[in-house]
Amino acid sequence: MTAATITRPPDELPDHAHGTQNYVSDYLSRLQQLLARVDPADVTRVVDTLLACYERGGRLVLCGNGGSATTASHLVCDFQKNVLLEGGRPWEVVALTDSPSLITAWGNDTEYANVFAGQARTWLRNENDVLIAISASGNSPNVLRAIEVANEVGAVSVGWSGYGGGKLADVARVNVVVHARNMQLVEDVHMALGHVVYSALRDRIKGLLGA
Is residue 18 located within the same domain as residue 43? Predict the structure, then answer.
């Protein structure tokens, strides 16, 4: 069997015995499998949720840890800057990962589990606002507490997770779950997911794409 025909389950680690090229081919194959397993209906629901947020003048807030933190920060560029350029109207979009001062203050003065929840209470106001909480494991305490705040104030909570969804999939109102137990692969799909959602949202705003 050649590298091109390997069809390992997405959760299974590649066989290291056959060299780097085989490893790379196997990784890319598993990533393709995971992307194909994402339910378009789940992603469409996220797009619908964000379009409603934008049209009603709501705020979009994002959070995550580690690699998920960089995904949250990256997506602010698309959802804030690019939506303004493409849609012609400003949209308040913020990543709770982007202020080291606030993160360390909340962590130091209370506990690390509050670093996003404390900020979320400032930004999230009502049902027009949306929180996208990104956690590959689905069990990050600080992400879960941010979801609690969103649910308390009536904002729409959106969870992007992996590893079966974890606790995040139980508490977020809208979910997209990546069905893998590999951190890098889950994070890969989450970044692709962000770009898909942004691109579809942009075209919906411009009237180029139907519901």
Answer: no
Residue with tokens 């600080």: 142
| 91 located within any domain | yes
Asked if the model's pLDDT at residue 5 lies above 60, the reply is no
Query: Are 49 and 126 part of one and the same domain?
Result: yes
| Sole residue written with tokens 């009536």 | 154
Q: What is the pTM of this model?
A: 0.89
Say whether both 25 and 106 belong to one domain. no
Give the chain's mean pLDDT: 92
**Which residue range(s) make up the domain with 157?**
39-205
Q: Which pLDDT does position 175 carry in this prediction? A: 97
Q: Can you tell me the mean pLDDT for 92-101?
A: 97
Q: What is the tally of structural domains in the chain?
A: 2
User: CA–CA separation, 209 vs 100, rounded Å?
Assistant: 38
**Tens of pLDDT, residues 125-158:** 999 999 999 999 999 999 999 999 999 999 999 9
